[in-house]
Specification:
The chain is mainly α. Helices cover 61% and strands 4% of the residues. The structure holds zinc ion.
């Protein structure tokens, strides 16, 4: 293991910017398809046609609520969307992240962008995709039925009830996800006794926080990227460390990363995220409610409008998340006083995970739930300056003083990303 701090790899940064650019363009395409789809369904007659086709499913347990119609309508639209966007999903989540083999033709022309972040076979990737989709369908159907039921039963205050139900569901999911959902996608095992475990226990003791365990997560079965996270709530709360981090980072670097996670623990960040997202959702739903009553429309408008509410809420919740992450960094620096390992670990993450250290401010504002790695490095320098701490190797790092970006955030567990739940089960 090298003792010298990690240097930012300019080749990898070049790739990271390219990779981020591709993903952002695909996001726009995806969004475009969704918007066109919603317009076609709502105004192109598809929605009305589908509703007429589903007319026979008119069981109505509560006045104005047709659960079978809603079910088939929603499943049909969701599956159609998944099928139409499958080429994008395949390209974005499998092809370009797969290993860079046969990248060039005989004439040396680059045929494909491949970034080698994934270690999955096509079969396993498809299997995970289907698992994620099935989970997502179950949760979404439950949510949609609930929304329609409340719309029928409580047309004036439905948004309040939906927000309350989402809050309850978020708490339950935050508690259960690490033991029920994530093991469907990853293997977990307790961090073996040893120096690291000792260090963490010592850190936790100094923070007067009882840690319910540190686990390693077998990320290497799916990705080459590294990550760490605080997961769970109450009796399932735990710190999770990707095995892709264990073998490549110095003990000091891992300690400061764990200190960041412990900081989330001490700050009760999962609760903060759940509460803040519920409040944002409440605001979003209230807006939808206003629009609905203003438009006095058929029930088939609700779904699209609820999605629009999520779009409004996303930048706000990302902004809050970035503030929380900044605080966890502050905690990690304070608790360990390890400035150089912190910067080295951040740089290593950028190199390993293809994280663009300097995303455009607009992209960061809209999409990033962590401050950019550039900002996190700057934060460490400012902390060091403010507390009069030595920063070794700061000269070699001078090139990083420009504002740069995004960190460990680039590896959301595959299954959770597609489960469609807003549960902040992982604060990394
Ligand atoms: Zn974090």
């Amino acid at each position: 293991m090298s003792v010298t701090p990690e240097e930012l790899d300019s080749d990898r940064q070049q790739k990271a910017r390219e990779y981020a650019g591709i993903r952002h363009r695909l996001l726009l395409v995806d969004l475009g398809i969704a918007i066109v789809g919603i317009v076609i369904v709502l105004f192109g007659g598809v929605g009305i046609w589908l509703r007429n086709v589903l007319q026979p499913l008119n069981w109505q347990p509560i006045h104005g609520w047709y659960p079978f119609q809603v079910l088939v309508y929603f499943v049909a639209i969701m599956l159609a969307y998944q099928i139409i966007t499958f080429p994008i999903t395949y390209y974005r989540d499998y092809l370009i992240v797969s290993a860079p083999k046969s990248q060039t033709s005989e004439r040396g022309k680059v045929l494909l962008h491949r970034y080698g972040l994934s270690t999955m076979s096509l079969k396993n990737w498809l299997l995970d995709l289907l698992k994620g989709l099935a989970l997502s369908l179950v949760f979404s159907i439950f949510a949609v039925e609930l929304v329609y039921l409340l719309l029928a039963a409580q047309p004036q205050t439905w948004w309040l009830w939906v927000a309350a139900a989402l809050l309850f569901f978020s708490v339950v999911m935050a508690n259960l996800a690490p033991v029920l959902i994530l093991p469907l996608f990853y293997k977990f095992s307790p961090l073996p006794e040893g120096e690291l475990a000792q260090r963490l226990l010592a850190l936790a003791e100094r923070a007067h926080t009882r840690v319910r365990g540190v686990f390693t997560m077998q990320l290497s079965s799916k990705t080459t990227a590294a990550n760490a996270a605080l997961m769970g709530l109450g009796n399932t709360r735990r710190i999770v460390l990707g095995d892709t981090m264990l073998d490549r980072y110095t003990p000091d670097e891992i300690e400061v990363v764990l200190a960041h996670e412990l900081g989330h623990h001490v700050h009760r960040d999962i609760w903060k995220l759940i509460i803040s997202q519920s409040l944002l959702m409440l605001g979003g739903l209230y807006l939808v409610n206003l629009v609905l009553h203003w438009a006095v429309e058929t029930q088939h408008y609700y779904q699209g409008l609820a999605d629009a509410a999520t779009l409004i809420v996303m930048p706000l919740s990302n902004g809050y998340s970035r503030a929380i992450e900044y605080q966890a960094d502050e905690y990690a620096l304070q608790a360990t006083q390890k400035i150089e390992p912190f910067k080295s670990a951040m740089t290593r993450l950028a190199n390993q995970n293809l994280a663009d250290v300097e995303p455009s401010p607009v992209i960061e504002f809209l999409l990033h739930d962590h401050p950019s790695i550039g900002k996190r490095l700057k934060h460490a320098d400012e902390f060091a300056a403010h507390h009069d701490l030595p920063v070794q190797g700061s000269e070699s790092r001078a090139s990083l003083s420009a504002p740069s970006s995004e960190a460990a955030s680039s590896t959301d567990p595959a299954g959770m990303a597609s489960s469609g739940s807003s549960t902040p089960d992982a604060a990394h």
